[in-house]
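Thread title: Can someone regenerate the structure for this chain?

I was given the following input by a collaborator and told the matching structure tokens would be attached. They weren't. Posting the sequence so someone can regenerate them.
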Amino acid sequence: MPVGTHGAVKAMTPEQVARTGAEVVLANTYHLMLRPGEALVAKLGGLHRFMRWERTILTDSGGFQVFSLPKKEIGDHGVRFKNEVDGSAVELTPERSIEIQNALGADIIMMFDECTPYPAEEALAESGVRRTLAWAERCLRAHARPSEQALFGIVQGSVYAGLRERCAAALVAMGLPGYAIGGVSVGEGHELLCRVTAHAAPLLPEDKPRYLMGVGLPEDLLAAIACGMDMFDCVIPTRYARSASVFTTRGRLRLTHRRYRRDAYPIDASCDCMACAGGFSRAYLHHLFAANEVLSAILCSVHNVRFYEKLVGDARSAIVQGGYEKWRRGFLAAYTGEEQREQ
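Best answer:
Regenerated them for you:
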């Protein structure tokens, strides 16, 4: 799911996003609350019309962004912080988060949770789980549009198996339409991410969407899919694109490197995106970055988002055909260069 923090996927039009095969786009509750405000979005017809995106929209709760702020006051009632736009005092509670998301009109909305930092002592992680579950109950009571918006719960608990189990069991008992695993993209690294996901995923119903929040690199996605996760979001495809880093089936390239100055090949000859199929060469993209042309970010963002959409699409096909592990090993061998070294 491409991330459109302020109601737009950076450097891409809605039509370009749709052409990559993306079915869901994320928007950020915290940022849209600050600017332009959920009341204006609702007045103008809701987030779908505002963004000109007819497909599914998911809004996060704002929890991750709030807990990432350097100065905030966290209490059982909610979180107090300064508005980064005008400096005014703001309080975000579970009820307020749901109220904003109801007004924005996204198809999938997230419960307000406490995202535990990493590393965290078990006592801090336990406090976060306690608060997350208490807030989940409040979110459920505050949700005014349950027939129109699917409200997902978020499993917290840091790296502590017992806390993850406790959080998951309580949320599953609420009978929600979907569940997410949070707190696994806060600096813990690939190994711990895999360990936490492998433990937490089986705790969630197989017949409902399972969403791993804020993940990640291709190798992270493929490991999480092996654990049974269904949905992912991350800013990596577009953020990396803006700094000339592009993904290919043979690994990642940095197009500002001088080796690409005369390279006539597309980013990835096997890719069908607008940039690759359209005949734009690595040399041309190298030139665009050197000239600081905005087209460089557009073409590379289109490519990276398409790469990710094709990656999970191919993973889905491999699962249906009963050969996911074999396919994953083959992809990673080529992607990491192991295939070439073996030859």
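Residues 153 and 179 are 5 Å apart (CA to CA).
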